[in-house]
């Protein structure tokens, strides 16, 4: 385990501009540097790198982080690999924190397990490649599908053979449990073993780092199922992976969009014919994890499904998975081909340009949503329109709060059901408390799985009948516009970026499962000050810490102070790296840090800080004084306390006026 102190020392010596500049062409843009975002396709630069604050942020897709995060996200390195690479560049040696024997043993077991599974998959892949060269039937099938040897080699296509225990040729110890665990071999109830894949063209499935994690097999003769995937293994989960994403990454960047199709052969066949930006789900409905990965590759997604009933059902499920993650800068469309065609056959008959023209004419998500809802109900009668609103309510609640797209869809839907926008908004807000629609729950789950998206979770909750967070939970999730509170009543917000979307982050280091907390105005002010000037924590005395303890809305401020103290972080990037990725603080820091990119440092941050704390103390004293008045100032102790508070308020007010 790498000590946090070393990570902070490393970030103090590494320049994020140098690290990012190796991969992204940057140009000067004021105090920062600008470039085209490497994490999504864009034509105008929205990717900003701050040399003073030592972090990057994309205002298009929301990607953000430090030099370490950038290497993890851009190169696919693990956290330890990224740290070691950066340390090597600046002549530092990475120490390892001592771990307990149990921790060391668990780590070794995990690494050994991954290594064993990786090895057996690679050994099987080599065998499948050898068998393809000697199989006339498999080669003839691929030729009939119009595939060349070059495209087969690019995707690593192989042949499983027909032998029931064919892999025994390369695995002499066929009884090895790893063969079953990795999904290559099936063990029957009577203990007999046999190969999972037989008489199938084999499609290796790779993760985002290009590592082999499983297989898909397409039978070429009679038999079911036509497509067969590896089972769930320690390396492979079909609900999280997309076939062809590794191979299509260059094509997606070149085309400016990602095309989602239904099968392996569609992906390979389209690539053969020049459409090289296609990926496929692995025999499962589109999930939130799929959408998250797709949005990290492009802000334009086109789903291509068959035009039959099954295809439209699959499209509808994909639409619901997309709803919580939509943004105003994201385009999601649906392409329905004639029932007699799949993408591969359509391109073969009409050509790649005709298919691209179909992609350009794909139905936008909003229209598909409206048309599908209208098709399910008799819209020429009041009962049908009422039922349509009933079905649409949880779907509309899944849309991210505060987006122009949500507003546009709601207004368009209101016209469709013969309501005014105000009437529809009132009906959407009338969801009984405690009866959260299943679709909203799905949206919450999707948002947790895809932190890089704008989440509807709590906005939907308020539309479902909650007027706002309870009085004793003012720090609960979401980042809504500030509302007056008993403690900070009348305190104006001092600028904001409320609602900014935190980015997705690398596995194991920067994923968040919760939405950012709502933060009161004064808390935001303090958080911004600390982020911009972390050294303020060095001057905090006991009296100021006591003031901060008085504010129920200042939990995150106290957490940030503790983080700066314990980690030693002294710039924004270092604080972002030090924050627990699963914490509410990490989400709030990600949101606020983007606001600091174009802000100049204050000439006297200490004075700003002291003034903010005086305001906090004043509000606390006035609140206590009001409570005493409401209690009738009963008793000498209450009257004495009231006078004491008055003197302190007068003193603080005098200081504030100087």
UniProtKB/TrEMBL annotation:
Checking InterPro entries in the record gives:
DNA_helicase_N/primase_C, DNA_primase_core_N_sf, DNA_primase_DnaB-bd, DNA_primase_DnaG, DNA_primase_DnaG_DnaB-bd_dom, DNA_primase_Znf_CHC2, DnaG_bac, DNAG_N
One Pfam short name: DNAG_N
From which organism does this entry originate?
Answer: Candidimonas humi
Entry note about domains: Contains an N-terminal zinc-binding domain, a central core domain that contains the primase activity, and a C-terminal DnaB-binding domain.
- The molecule here is called DNA primase
Q: Where are the zinc fingers (CHC2-type)?
A: 37-61
Q: Where is the Toprim domain?
A: 256-338
* Similarity annotation: Belongs to the DnaG primase family.
Biological classification of the source: Bacteria, Pseudomonadati, Pseudomonadota, Betaproteobacteria, Burkholderiales
């Amino acid at each position: 385990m790498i000590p946090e102190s070393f990570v902070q020392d490393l970030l103090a010596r590494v320049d994020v501009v140098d690290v990012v500049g190796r991969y992204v062409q940057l140009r000067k843009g004021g105090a920062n540097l600008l470039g085209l975002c490497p994490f999504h396709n864009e034509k105008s630069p929205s990717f900003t790198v701050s040399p003073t604050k030592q972090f990057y942020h994309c205002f298009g897709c929301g990607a953000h982080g430090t030099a370490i995060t950038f290497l993890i996200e851009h190169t696919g390195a693990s956290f330890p690999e990224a740290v070691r690479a950066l340390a090597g560049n600046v002549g530092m040696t990475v120490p390892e924190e001592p771990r307990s024997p149990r921790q060391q043993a668990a780590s070794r077991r995990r690494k050994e397990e991954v290594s064993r599974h990786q090895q057996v998959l690679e050994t099987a892949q080599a065998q499948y490649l050898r068998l393809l060269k000697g199989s006339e039937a498999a080669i003839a099938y691929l030729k009939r599908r119009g595939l060349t040897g070059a495209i087969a080699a690019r995707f690593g296509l192989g042949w499983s053979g027909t032998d029931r225990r064919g892999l025994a040729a390369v695995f002499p110890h066929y009884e090895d449990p790893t063969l079953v665990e990795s999904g290559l071999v099936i063990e029957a109830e009577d203990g007999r073993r046999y190969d999972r894949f037989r008489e199938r063209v084999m499609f290796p499935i790779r993760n985002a780092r290009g590592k082999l994690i499983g297989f898909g097999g397409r039978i070429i003769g009679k038999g079911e199922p036509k497509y067969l995937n590896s089972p769930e293994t320690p390396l492979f989960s079909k609900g999280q992976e997309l076939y062809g994403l590794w191979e299509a990454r260059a094509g997606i960047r070149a085309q400016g969009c990602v095309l989602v199709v239904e099968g392996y052969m569609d992906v390979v066949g389209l690539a053969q014919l020049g459409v090289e930006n296609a990926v496929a789900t692995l025999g499962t409905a589109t999930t939130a994890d799929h959408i998250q990965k797709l949005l990290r590759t492009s802000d334009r997604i086109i789903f291509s499904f068959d035009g039959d009933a099954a295809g439209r059902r699959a499209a509808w499920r994909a639409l619901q998975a997309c709803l919580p993650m939509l943004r105003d800068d994201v385009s999601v469309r649906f392409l329905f081909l004639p029932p007699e065609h799949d993408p591969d056959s359509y391109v073969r008959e009409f050509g790649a340009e005709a298919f691209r023209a179909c992609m350009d004419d794909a139905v936008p998500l909003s229209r598909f949503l409206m048309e599908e809802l209208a098709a399910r109900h008799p819209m020429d009668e009041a009962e049908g329109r009422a039922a349509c609103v009933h079905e649409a309510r949880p779907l509309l609640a899944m849309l991210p709060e505060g987006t122009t797209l949500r507003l546009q869809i709601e207004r368009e839907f209101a016209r469709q059901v013969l309501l005014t926008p105000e009437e529809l908004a009132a009906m959407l807000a009338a969801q009984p408390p405690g009866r959260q629609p299943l679709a909203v729950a799905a949206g919450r789950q999707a948002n947790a799985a895809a932190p890089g998206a704008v989440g509807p979770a709590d906005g939907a909750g308020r539309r479902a009948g909650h007027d706002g967070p309870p009085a004793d939970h003012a720090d609960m999730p979401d980042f809504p516009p500030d509302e007056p509170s008993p403690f900070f009543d009348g305190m104006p917000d001092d600028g904001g970026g409320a609602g900014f979307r935190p980015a997705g982050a690398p596995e194991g280091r920067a994923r968040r499962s919760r939405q950012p907390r709502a933060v009161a105005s004064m808390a935001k002010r303090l958080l911004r000050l600390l982020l911009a000037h972390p050294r303020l924590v060095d001057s905090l005395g006991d009296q100021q810490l006591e003031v901060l303890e008085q504010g129920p809305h200042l939990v995150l401020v106290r957490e940030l102070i503790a983080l700066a103290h314990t980690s030693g972080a002294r710039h924004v990037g270092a604080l972002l790296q030090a924050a627990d990725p699963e914490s509410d603080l990490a989400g709030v820091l990600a949101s606020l840090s983007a606001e600091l990119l174009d802000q100049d440092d204050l000439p006297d941050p200490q004075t700003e800080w002291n003034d903010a704390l005086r305001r906090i103390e004043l509000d606390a004293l006035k609140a206590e004084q009001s409570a005493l008045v409401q209690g009738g100032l009963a008793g000498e102790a209450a009257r004495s306390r009231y006078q004491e508070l008055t003197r302190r308020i007068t003193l603080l007010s005098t200081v504030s006026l100087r």
